[in-house]
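Reading is simple: each integer encodes one residue's backbone shape. The lines below illustrate:
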Amino acid sequence: MGRFSVLIVDDQREVARLVRVGLEETLGQALEVRDVPSGEEALLELSLRPADLLIVDLGLPGLGGRELISKVHQAHPHTRFLVLTGWDEGSARRAVRNLPVQEVLLKPVNIETLVDAVREALGLPAGEADAEATDEGALSYEESRQRLADLLAEAREQAAVDAVLLLDDEGRILLRSPGPLPPDLMEDLRRPLVYLHSAGLDLARTLRQPLPEHLFFFQGPTRTYGLSSVAPYYMLLWIRAHTADQAPLTAQAEAIRRTVAGVREILERMGILDSAHAGALDQAREAEPHAAEMALEPEALAQDAEETVDLEADDQVAALLESLGEWNPDQAGVDPDAFWQEAASAKDTDLLHTNADALSYEEARRLGLVPDDSAPPDA
């Protein structure tokens, strides 16, 4: 079983390192943990290697936490999200109410509370600290990709076709089986395939189906195609060149349905089909992409998001972990930032030191990570 990938996005470097070490010490056998100090660097990191779980601060400078979650969800529907923020609870929950966030945690957070939230978000079993997901439990992104690749290769053989492709809802190839595929084929097919996929989702919604159950078959001059919508963000395409001695592709409908069921099982274990099985096909398609356009509550805008830290030694992290373990998250009347400042002051750490390693919003825009005309909604 591959380890789950967790990415912490927090410009307070002390907090990020504290969380990272806490997760590595308690779930190190099941997790690989990374951290970055900005939303822009998170997008760059995820473009190189997607994550199974993001732990996001809402008050990020530049690309804010809300917009980051929305962008990542659109690009990587399998990714799950936890929010760890210094905002007050009411403002934080209102800010993410239309986003696919598993849980909202408030700084300072007890490590045990955080670990429990991570376990639940990833579907890790409770028990020993180094427990991993069982074979029937959740799948990591890397493990899922391998299983999907094996499934597509098997589907190609079973249906006797040239290639089987897993596409996203914009017609881009995510995975494909071995087999010949003309390099310019998808350029011509992308738009009509996206249209058919969208029409199929509308049909499923009209029929009150949690998941679409239709198949499309169509024939071109040299090839026959089969298309099935697997879930709101995914579809499968079968491709076969015309031959005189083969049965029509429609005869493989049962094999195609078995493959669709296999892909759905993997997506289920990645947590992607949760909203669809809950009967929320409409929301899965329409709600999240527009969530970043919502206006922030005034009290949320007033939150301070400028504190960063730079910790030099592991023994300092251990000391802070010990302090955090003794903290009661339900204790009222304590400012979270003041807690982190006090915890670090004993180790001569300046929590207001500006982190020179963080990628600024302007730098990210020049690198093309964000559009030139975009403005940071959470600044």
In short: The first helix runs from residue 13 to 27.
